[in-house]
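Hey, quick one: can you model this chain's 3D structure?
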Amino acid sequence: MESKDLAIKCAKILSDKIARDLSVIYVREITSLADYFVIATGTSSTHVKALADEVEFILKQEEIVPDHIEGHGTNSWIVMDYGSVVVHVFSEEARDFYDLERLWQDGEKLELDFD
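Sure thing. Here's the predicted structure for all 115 residues.
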């Protein structure tokens, strides 16, 4: 699966689980970390965990597994590294604090429309 398709798929999964403030940012031209960052906000620590779990569960059914997952212990920021796509699921407070959109503002933000 192409990295853009994977990023959009992750965003759709998150959208279906009612994630807030979804962003997909193309960062390949400005970092070697990934091609895309997917950023979402959960409404509670339980929601943050449920969002990350859903992404992992659905992608695993397609035999797509993350290289690494961090943050399950805190449930305020869970990072899922799928190589070319990194998924960040935040609590509202953590997202405001880390402000990844500002840090990666030179990236290209994709328009998402799942209606």
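One thing worth noting: The chain has a mean pLDDT of 94.
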